[in-house]
Design goal:
The complex is a heterodimer of chains A (about 325) and B (about 350). Chain A is about 45% helix and about 20% strand. Chain A has a six-stranded parallel sheet with strand order 2-1-3-4-5-11, sandwiched between helices. Chain B is built from 16 helices and four strands. In chain B, β2 and β3 form a beta hairpin. In chain B, α3 crosses α11. Chain B is globular. Chain B starts with a helix and ends with a helix. Classes of the chains: A alpha/beta (about 325), B mainly alpha (about 350). Chains A and B meet through α2, β7, α7 and α8 of A and α2 and α15 of B. Chain B: It holds the Pfam family BPD_transp_2. Chain B: GO terms for molecular function: transmembrane transporter activity.
Chain lengths: ~325, ~350
């Protein structure tokens, strides 16, 4: 009795295998932070859009996107995902400490692991690592000031005191070395519009001549712009933000003189990661490795490629 | 000995409250002096007006917080509430100003009543912002009163709820006023002036004046203080405790609503980080102003000065080049503690 059932199952499996040869079945799970601020909002948008595109492009591919409000919830979400049959996991971890072990557990089941943006404590876990480039982000911005301002006084807005912020700002200053561009003041404004508005009002009071502003972030750039507009000062030639918020890209596209450029730190890096992961299963090309996305200078010429009017960010 | 003590007592009783009430003003004067010493640009008209205008949001919210704290309550939800109300207000103005297929039926109907002109959209936005803020405050008050739960816990809960709602509404992004026309029409409410005084300053002085009259001159105001100093005594004296407490939170809500009306025209947008930590700033302003956290006293004008002091400290930090940006927080904290020590030493000299 048992044997016949076993045989029957084997036959079933064989015929299923034959079907699979034509119709492959791959499940990719995507675990990302919930939309708690602009950038992660963008990540969620791009993850969902890319999931649809990939499922259309690769027959038999199933993409599950799961968002979590904090690190502990993300660890739980990973456990839940593993109860389903998952071939690959694309994860943008909330933080390195909390998520390293949960992702390691997933890896032990033979799942293909792609880590995005924030690295894990143990890089041996990941098959693919896709990340933005924070030092490059500062360098590109610094180079823009050297090339376009050549000489003058610049004020710098910092974000929240973190490694990311430190890498960006120190490389920005390194890029200015030896040029006529001088940083006359720096202040934290927490990647927040209201704080940036406040600090810029004070900068404008304190410094009689400011030639340009490195807001280092698009949210902060918006606060800075409003303060400049109120002061009616004409000395500030331009404001350089960063990240690639759609409102700012639009201004770059439209040729706004105050916002001539932007530096990308694209939330769509989740799409890159998902694409590479899917390609691992559907092509013969080697995919394992580290992908560092360039922090690109966005100008009027290439702004179109960075403009996503439907994204919340 | 006893005789002399008795003889001098009344005279002391007269000077004592004056000093206590004056101490925030003395701290303010000391800060102005400090500011003038660190930067020659500090005492310019433009700078002082900037600072006073910026302190308007916290000052207005803190007037409401004075009522809540004087009644021995606490509201931690004001920052999130401000973000939510600002977000909903902009959302309503966008929907009413340009109703489309995706506009919720209620808002489409509203748009039919007030019209789609900037004025109509503004009226709808302002109305809904005020109604929503009072409802949020009422919700806090009702749960605290009838649920008999510590206000700390209730408002910590609503703080999370309001914050999550704005995040959800904005999908993690930004809610921005879409109509350029409306944005320009509304902008002067933050940037414009009335008789030479910036409108936000006019608003916060008006709110403080009304708050002071209500707290000091009405039966309700005395009920608030009575409830804060001793609930049992207040109950036995016939104070309608539940009603007074709920109203205090509703007033707090209304103040948040008014602050939002002045906040929105500044940047024309609300994000999930709008109003972050405003609750702590409002509570700090109230305490710097001389209101005890345990309740039983309320000093509206002290609160307003407290809010200005907080903004001044931040302003002095940016204007001076003495402190590295890494240490700004530490110096800011130290200045606030020193200002409080000066105040308290004045009060102890009774």
């Amino acid at each position: 009795m048992k044997k016949t059932i076993g045989l029957g199952l084997a036959a079933l499996a064989l015929s299923a295998g034959a079907a699979l040869a034509q119709q492959k079945s791959v499940t990719v799970a995507v675990s990302i932070p919930a939309a708690t601020h602009g950038w992660t909002g963008g990540v969620v948008y791009h993850a969902e859009e890319t999931a649809k595109l990939l499922e259309k492009g690769y027959p038999g591919l199933k993409v599950i996107v799961k968002t979590s409000p904090n690190g502990a919830a993300q660890a739980n979400a990973l456990e839940d995902l593993m109860t389903q049959k998952v071939d690959a996991l694309v994860v943008l971890p909330f933080n390195s400490d909390e998520l390293t072990n949960p992702v390691r557990e997933v890896k032990k089941r033979g799942t293909f692991i792609t880590v995005v943006d924030r690295g894990l404590k143990d890089p041996a876990i990941q098959d693919v690592y896709v990340a933005g480039n924070n030092p490059e982000f500062g360098r590109v911005a610094g180079k823009y000031f050297v090339d376009n301002l050549k000489s003058g006084n610049v004020v710098v807005f910092r974000g929240i005191p973190t490694v990311i912020d430190e890498e960006r700002v120190s490389n920005f200053e390194k890029a200015l070395e030896g040029s006529g561009v001088k940083v006359i003041d720096k202040q934290y404004a927490n990647w927040n519009r209201d704080d940036a508005f406040r600090v810029m009002q004070d900068f404008l009071q304190k410094h009689p001549k400011i030639d340009a502003v490195w807001a280092s972030d698009d949210d902060m750039a918006l606060g800075v712009m409003e303060a400049i507009r109120q002061s009616k000062r004409e000395d500030v030639k331009f404001v350089l933000g960063g990240a690639g918020m759609k409102e700012m890209i639009k201004r770059v596209m439209d040729g706004d003189k105050m916002i001539p450029a932007d530096v990308s730190y694209p939330p769509s890096m989740i799409s890159t990661a998902m694409g590479v992961t899917a390609a691992h299963f559907y092509s013969n090309a080697p995919m394992r490795g580290t992908y560092v996305l360039n922090a690109q200078l966005i100008t009027k010429e290439n702004a179109k490629e960075h403009y996503f009017p439907n994204s919340p960010f | 000995m006893t005789d002399t003590a008795l003889a001098t007592a009344p005279a002391r009783r007269w000077t004592m409250p004056d000093l206590t009430a004056l101490s925030p003003f003395i701290a303010l004067a000391a800060l102005l002096l400090l500011g003038a010493l660190v930067s020659d640009r500090f005492l310019t008209y433009d700078n002082l007006v900037n600072v006073a205008t910026r302190s308007a949001f916290i000052a207005i919210i803190a007037v409401g917080a004075t009522f809540v704290i004087a009644s021995a309550g606490l509201d931690l939800s004001v920052g999130s509430m401000a973000a939510l109300v600002a977000g909903v207000m902009i959302f309503v103005m966008n929907a009413v100003g340009a109703p489309g297929a995706a506009t919720p039926g209620f808002l489409a109907a509203l748009s039919g009543i007030v019209g789609t002109s900037p004025t109509g959209a503004l009226v709808a936005g302002v109305g809904i912002a005020l109604i929503l803020s009072v409802l949020c405050g009422l919700a806090n008050g009702l749960v605290v009163t009838y649920g008999r739960i510590e206000p700390f816990i209730v408002t910590l809960g609503t703080m999370g709820i309001f914050r999550a709602l704005i995040v959800w509404l904005a999908a993690g992004g930004t809610i921005t006023m879409r109509s350029f026309e409306l944005r320009e029409a509304y902008r002067p409410v933050y940037f414009g002036t009335l008789l030479g005084i910036p409108i936000p300053i006019v608003v916060f002085l008006a709110v403080a004046l009304v708050g002071a009259v209500v707290l000091y001159k009405t039966a309700f105001g005395r009920h608030i203080v009575a409830l804060g100093s001793n609930e049992d005594v207040a109950r036995y004296s016939g104070v309608p405790i539940d009603r007074v407490r709920i109203l205090a939170y509703a007033i707090q809500g209304l103040c948040v609503g008014i602050a939002v009306l002045v906040y929105v025209p500044r940047l024309g947008s609300a994000t999930p980080t709008t109003g972050l930590l405003w609750e702590l700033q409002a509570i700090t302003a109230v305490v710097i102003g001389g209101t005890a956290l345990k309740g039983g006293t309320g000093r509206i004008w002290g609160t307003v000065v407290g809010a200005v002091i907080l903004e001044l400290v931040a302003n002095i930090m940016v204007l001076s080049s003495l402190v590295s940006e890494y240490l700004v927080g530490a110096v800011q904290g130290a200045i606030i503690i020193v200002a409080m020590l000066v105040q308290r030493s004045l009060q102890r000299r009774r």
